[in-house]
Amino acid sequence: MPQYVVVPDNPKMPVAGRDYPKTWDQFLDWFPDDESCRRYLEDIRWKQGFVCPGCGEGGVAFQGTRGRWICRHCRRQSTVTAGTIFDKTRTPLRSWLAAVWYVVNQKQGVNALGLQRVLGLGSYQTAWAMLHRLRRAMIRPGRERLHGLVEVDECWVGPSPPNALRLTKKKQQLIEKRKAQRMIVMVAIEIKEPKGFGRIRLQRVTNKSEKAVLPFVMEVVEPGSVVRTDGSAAYRKLDKRGYRREETVIAGAEDPAHVIMPGVHRVASLLKRWLLGTHQGAVRPEQLDYYLDEFAFRFNRRTSRSRGLLFYRMLEQALVTGPVTYAQITRKRKHNI
Length: 337
Ligand SMILES: [Zn+2]
Known about the structure:
Blueprint: H1 24-30, H2 34-45, E1 61-63, E2 69-71, E3 77-78, H3 93-105, H4 112-119, H5 124-136, E4 149-157, H6 169-181, E5 183-191, E6 197-205, H7 210-220, E7 226-229, E8 244-247, H8 257-260, H9 262-277, H10 285-300, H11 307-318, H12 326-329
Parallel strand pairs: 4-7, 7-8
Antiparallel strand pairs: 1-2, 2-3, 4-5, 5-6
Helix pairs in contact: 3-11, 4-5
The structure holds zinc ion (ZN).
């Protein structure tokens, strides 16, 4: 698990053209080589000057060669990328920064093949692992819970079983295989009055039981909020946990899902389209949570006018997110949210 460090509050809001590039042209201007990228990351990571990750002393380091900082106090050597998701990377920093720029500027995000092409990376695997590392930086630790009126429901993602008029044995097998690849995603979304949606939280669950759905709600929704759910008994105990449950009554089959749960319905259809479009439906269950993080990151910032600010924020976050090894990327996530 990556180790998180709390980002200190920065009273000064980053400014376009001073703290982050306004345009791609400016990006090219600012970052002609790895050296300029490294200095930029140092400015972001050590806003008040270098702080030794070994002893915590600030302002007592001298600079060695190739971006190394040597602490006068404890003699420890470090670099701006040590202990971050860029730790020990063999990919040039310039490619990393370009990847972040590309990721935040593409409305629908980017898949590994697309990233490999635009950055001219040697291998698909490199691009794939870069995107996975960046996804680790898309979730802010200690983020606040949703509040107000929150819709909560489950949706299915993954390949849909083929329609078959005549069920041959082969088709039956395909249907079973696809069913096994389907995944359940919990969706929570703030509903604004009189209209509009707020923020979302998503998480993969293995079933729709109380044991699966209650912890999700408690983790992502502030107690005291109104939680709108369907009639499922899995949500029965919400009232006892400090929430006000509003059960939607399904009046026969006449009311389509988008009328009863407009928020969840909207998110579910966007999510499915994104997984099928940008990622061509190739997301495996053990990776899904990270894709959900990226989807939520994009959705929650959909109204942000400044893509450049997102570039800055993502780098800020990447510099406080611990290293992730290739083995960790391909391993199943153990914790929730
Ligand atoms: Zn030190």
